[in-house]
Design goal:
The chain is built from 13 helices and 19 strands. Helix 1 packs antiparallel against helix 2 and helix 12 packs antiparallel against helix 13.
Amino acid sequence: MSFVHNLSLRHKVVYISLIVTFFALGTGFGVFLWQSVSLFKGNLKEKVMTNASLTAAFCTTPLAIKDRKGLRDILKKFKDFPEITQACIYNRRGKIYATYRRDSTIPASFPAYNKQWITSAKFDDDFLHVYQPVVYNDRDYLGLVYIKASTQNLNQKVNQEIIILVSLLILLAIVSYLLARSLQKVVSSPVQELIAVVDQISDKGDYSLRAKKQSRGNDEITKLYDQFNHMLEQIEQKQQREKTSRKKYQELFQNSVIGIVSVDVTSGEIIEANHRFWDILQLRPRKVLEDDLLDYNPEDLYRLKGMLEKHTFIIREEVQLRIKKNQILWLSISGTLNNERHFEGVIQDITELKEHSLELKQVNNELDNFVYHASHEFRAPLRSILGLTNLIKQEQNLESIMLCVDMIIQSTQNLDEVVQNALALTKNKRVESAFTAIHWKDKLKTFLENLADTKHSRRIKFDTLVNQTSVFYSDLSRINIIIGELLANAIRFTRHLEFPEIQVRIYANPHKVTIRIGDNGEGIPSDELPKIFDMFYRGSESSQGSGLGLYIVKNAVNKLNGMIYVTSEEKMGTTFTVELPNEAKRNGQIDADETSGKEDSLQTTPLPERDQ
């Protein structure tokens, strides 16, 4: 369209009028044609799908009893529908039971059988292909009805409408051209007079000249004359304002909350950059960014350069840098490449946002994994209970019935364990920490007294030692989760031994607490150790737990900003070590001796039995 620039004003007015007319009419006709085609296709599709649905309903009984003649009679009804050229009925194994062809001279072309439970229809190769499943009582799949309908009539209608619309478009274009030529003088004549004045001012350089105001109207062109004269009076004032504006721009540029930079892509020289740019990179202003200042992935640089060369712009492209002190920095970069091959763009620090995004992605993955495994964990005991109850109905022997009842109780307890662990996991992730003073000797004593009431712990030798030298603050509910799960885990893997033993050591000081719980159980193979904190992981066939215990412990330790370690040797035992920070200072508590600092032993060999 470059030839338009060489046209005179009056020809440009005519040309633009025609372009607008053609665009408006073309758009309107195009929308109308598109709606017509959509309507034609929709009507044909609805008609054929209705026939397919009725045919499938009529085919239910003949297809069930393998009545081929009945099926062929049903398909013969398509003679009343000229659009339908071919049809067939498949049985559930994909064998064609009956066919229909409107024109017997045209060979049949039926698609390969593909079992479908829902109705589908698509246009392809001037035909509409409809697949309708034959289902009895919405559950028994009997077969498939296939119908092939021609779109020839539809295409004829569309061609007719195109001819009419094109004819109408040509007629309207001729009328528009005649009107544009007649009316263009209203615009072009005043503008040509104004151009003559501009040329005179340009030749003489005399800004005292003024364009004579046109007296033929009060439209936009007349206002243009007034504004042109006013412009001549304001040239010097505008020059001053440009200087002021440039100063303000520099202030905004330097004080922007985002980093702004202009870089020569060829040489790598930084032409201009604001303070925020250097603050983000934690560098002093310089002409060139040396490679030893920033550690980046070369592939990111090649990717950005390639996008600039291809599109001349980039929008919110993310790159990762490693700056001084080995700090990871995520940047979002946007900008354009101008004709001078200068990249002018902005950078934003999105490190925090990226970390939150990665954390959210991890949470979503954990949620998907939890839902998938939890469904199996819930279903297994429920299926066991259901099977045992059915078995009880058939049993006459009281001893066998009581055995089934015991097994039902065990399955119910397993299901309750899964539910309780799921609740503990949810509470641990959502509830904020509430720090309270913890007396480790009393806390461990309470745990051991509660364990004395369980049958598996009565044979176990508990060797305990507590050494607390200061006030200790932490989240009591999460402490209960950590110690409770680790003790339960130790009991689970030692209760079958002849001489089971569990060792507990707790050392608390003004800075942290170290909790060490070890057992002499079967141990964990070295290749299994990295997996033991995974959700629903069971490291041994003898494990009867939910598979959530150690996963919950790991999450609770993380919530308290602690660390957990595990050492294990097969046939020798396993030891878990947990380190948690002391939150006493955070809660306004001064360091003070809470105990004498002497070691307190709570050794029991085994725990005493209580009266039942």
